[in-house]
Amino acid sequence: MALENVLEDKELGRLLIRVNVRARRLTFRTREDAIYVTVPPGTTLTEVKNAIEELRPRLRVARQKYTRPLIDLNYRIDTEFFKLSLVSGQRERFLSRSELGEMQIICPPDADFTDPALQAWLRKVIEEALRRNAKIILPPRLYMLSQKHNLPYQCVKINSSNGRWGSCSARRNINLSYYLMLLPKHLIDYVLLHELTHTREMNHGERFWALLDELTEGKSQLLRKELRQYRTDF
After folding, report:
1. DSSP code string of 132-173
2. How far is CA 115 from CA 29, 31, 76, 93, in A?
């Protein structure tokens, strides 16, 4: 492979691949203009592409940090389990109304939504709402699927991971990201079933995919592809 290559990816944008004689492994660094990939000498382009596919969910999240939508009066979240809207109010401070599955933020009439500090605060408020809702909604749904398919687990925890939708340990402890609340219902169930499948098959071998296919009516690969292409715009 040449000392420098450029890959154009429809989802991730430009990836600049550079060979470094001191590099011991592939490293990815996301910047505003591109994703920079440093590789050891002798690395093939096929190896780089395989690494990109393996890390695509995390690279997608990292890339979205530079292309986040502005949270203003036009911003909406509208999924089966969580709905958010912002409206203009009369008071000089922010207020919020929240109930299970829904949140409304009432904004001062002169709110400057271009202020980075305000954007950071709004994201924090929304993330906390996502966390609260995820703790109420996701564990019972996981339990229901576990009972339905006879795939027991030890415990479930909700975390803030924005690089992995979920994980399952060798002890059958399942972790779920509260960002799952931004997905449509069928993709949430796919992630939950994926992690439950790991309680029986702790790898991604043929038996894992065969079992997950049974649980998803033969749609595991289609759902996997859809999840990889899904953007939450948050």
Report:
1. HHHHHHHHHHHHHHHHHHT---SEEEEE--SS-SEEE-TT-E
2. 26, 21, 19, 15
Query: How many CB atoms are located within 10 Å of the residue 63 CB?
Result: 19
**pLDDT, position 33:** 76
User: How far is the C-alpha of 148 from the C-alpha of 46, rounded, in Å?
Assistant: 41
- For helices 206-215 and 185-197, the axis angle rounded to 10 degrees is 140
Distance CA 153, CA 172 (A): 5
Q: Summarize pLDDT for 72-106 with one digit per residue, the tens.
A: 999 999 999 999 999 999 999 999 999 999 999 99
Q: Give the length of the chain.
A: 234
Contacts of 126 (CB under 8 A, 6+ apart): 71, 77, 84, 103, 234
Six-digit token string for 199: 């309680």
Q: How far is CA 12 from the centre of its chain?
A: 14
Question: Model-level pTM greater than 0.70?
Answer: yes
DSSP one-letter string for 67-101: SPPP-STT-EEE-SS-EEEEEE-SSSS-EEEEETT
Q: Give the position of tokens 């979920």.
A: 166
Tell me if residue 39 falls in helix, strand or coil.
Answer: strand
pLDDT at 48: 94
CA distance 21 to 61: 29
Compute the distance between CA of residue 213 and CA of residue 234 in angstroms, rounded to an integer.
Answer: 30
Token digits of residue 39: 């590789």
- Residue at 94: amino acid letter: F
**What pLDDT digit, counting tens, does each position of 119-129 carry?**
999 999 999 99
